[in-house]
Amino acid sequence: MNREIAILGVGLHPWGKWGRNFVEYGLKAARDALADAGVDWRSVPFVSGAATMRCGYPGYVAGATFAQALGWQGAEVNTSYAACASGAQALAAARAKILSGACEVALVVGADTTPKGFLAPQPGERPDDPDWVRFRIGLTNPTYFALYARRRMALYGDTPEDFAAVKIKNAAHGAENPNARYRRRFTREEVAASPMVADPLRLLDVCATSDGGAALVVSSLAYARKIGKTNAPRIVAISTVTPTFPNALVEMPDLATDSAAAREAQPFRAALPRKAYEEAGIGPEDVDVAEVYDLSTALELDWIEDLQLCARGAAAKLTREGATRIGGRIPVNPSGGLACFGEAVPAQALAQVCELVWQLRGQAGARQVQNAKVGITANQGLFGHGSSVIVKR
Amino acid sequence: MEACVKEPFLPGWFTLDAQAPHLIGTRCAACGTYYFPKETRYCRNPDCQSTDFEQVLLSRTGRLWSYTDAAYPPPPPFVAPDPYRPFAIAAVELEKEKMIVLGPVADGVGVEALRVGMAMALTLEPLADGKLTWKWRPA
Ligand SMILES: [Zn+2]
Asked: Residue B108's domain spans which residues?
């Protein structure tokens, strides 16, 4: 059974700190994606929205809200919330609808407006909420990224210079991306001189939060042929698996890992691309380009290994050798990644797919990965959510 | 020593024995999985349907799995001392329970005094608002 769908069109609202309502960003991205696809909004029977939990009431009903902004025309709607994987789950809902034959074409949209500064929990005394407890004793989001980074230093001998190399590489990529929020190149000295946030991670090692919007128009392969887009990039896998108990890694916002007293501990991040490879029937050796969730510079190195693009512990060496740069053996984050975008949660997983589409179509301009045929995304967020999507042409 | 008895910021999360405090967790009576914070409703082991838990004191020593610090004051509900002093944070692996537990590191112990694999022990110290919390310190 063919479980592939076509990506007909993609669109982004540039990432930034614009401070406007998230619906505006989603609307701009959606209109761009529809125009890119050459599909009229009135002929879209399904809208799948990726929700944010911060933007108040409309955020909980993202699908309907974006559909209303485009002009209600009787389409069916869906709304997905899955933290960093919200966009991938919204995409999976559209794929299910298309593969079941219930519709031929669908619009997927995610957009976010983020608050300033540290992401903080809801107010009030709430000891049942691990998020409240961890902030009460001073554990912020960078705490977790820094624990993983320090662990890499102890296990594999990674250095702060290795982490800085990721920032320098991603900044060089993002400098060529008009949709990126930060388009400045950085030197090793500048990264080393930026203030320490959570030892060993400095300000330039940790990603910001941003406003942004991303959208895709997807369809059955038959529909793509019908409108003359036979060679459109195809989605060949969407993995959104949960962790398997007991989760080996201490994850935000938890205070402790699962206990491995009764069962052997399992890593979560590596499980996400494993399922995607299995679903696509390909292996890491087939991948030409990857977009991964570099919430921190060190985390990009973890992802490279979780995607099996190199052996465990070898990602810093791979980066030092230039293999993950555009022009290298396996370019990682040619968009500039979160280092240059900042995180706009419900839009980010979709933005990763948009970048792969431009790369696979050969439309990425100065950041083009030559002859890219297979791309993979990976991200992971709160509450056991994560995703990995494979796109092929 | 402090004259007055300090209150924990969360009652029932750790014992108040100043010399040898323990975190209070639970253990599934059927499969032996430990939980911190306490789980009393359902076992998260997919092969276990137990709803039967016993309260246990977790090991008060372990190995340092990783560490970091908070260079900037965390946002509320953290109560930052004025002036703010950065503090270290530890992730400690408990051998018997096979789990990693996070916590701030005792006052005066910075990241330069820590290294992965070293022995750590649980201690109690007040937060800036005077409420007691668990912390880790080199054993
Ligand atoms: Zn059990």
From this structure: 24-138
Coil, strand or helix: which one is A375? strand
Asked if B71 and A257 come within 8 Å (Cβ–Cβ), the reply is no
Specify the 3-state DSSP secondary structure of B31. coil
Q: Containing H/E element for A388? A: strand A386-392
| H runs (alpha helix) in chain A | 22-37, 62-70, 86-99, 130-136, 141-156, 160-174, 188-193, 221-226, 271-280, 297-306, 315-320, 337-341, 345-361
Distance A312 CA to ligand 1 centre (A): 32
DSSP A158-181: --HHHHHHHHHHHHHHHTT-TT-S
Q: How far is A292 from chain B (nearest CA, A)?
A: 23
Tell whether A136 lies on the interface with B, counting CB pairs under 8 A.
yes
> In chain B, which residues have their Cβ closer than 8 Å to the Cβ of A118?
74-75
Domain assignment of residue B18, yes or no: no
CB contact under 8 A, A125 and B101: no
Query: Is the confidence metric ipTM above 0.85 for this complex?
Result: yes
How far is the CA of A263 from the CAs of A85, B97, B98, in angstroms?
A: 27, 11, 10
B73: nearest CA partner in chain A: A138
Domains of chain A listed by start with CATH number? 5-117+211-235 (3.40.47.10), 130-206+237-392 (3.40.47.10)
CA trace torsion A66, A70, A75, A81 (10° rounding): -10
Asked if omega into A200 is within 30° of 0 (cis), the reply is yes
Spans of chain A, pLDDT less than 50:
58
A155 to chain B: closest CA residue? B116
Q: How many domains does chain B have?
A: 1
The reply to whether residue A256 touches residue B69, judged by beta carbons under 8 angstroms, is: no
A142 contacts in chain B (CB < 8 Å): 68
Per-residue pLDDT tens for A154-187? 999 999 999 999 999 999 999 999 999 999 999 9
pTM across the whole model: 0.96
Per the domain annotation, does B17 fall within a domain?
no
Q: Judged by CB atoms within 8 Å, which residues 239-268 of A form the interface with B?
A: 244-246, 250, 255-263, 265
In a domain, B8, yes or no: no
Are B11 and B18 contacting, i.e. CB atoms less than 8 angstroms apart?
no
Which residues of chain A does B69 touch, with a Cβ-Cβ cutoff of 8 Å?
146, 196, 198-199
B7, part of any domain: no
Q: What is the per-residue pLDDT across A192-241, written as a single tens digit (0 to 9) for each?
A: 999 999 999 999 999 999 999 999 999 999 999 999 999 999 999 999 99
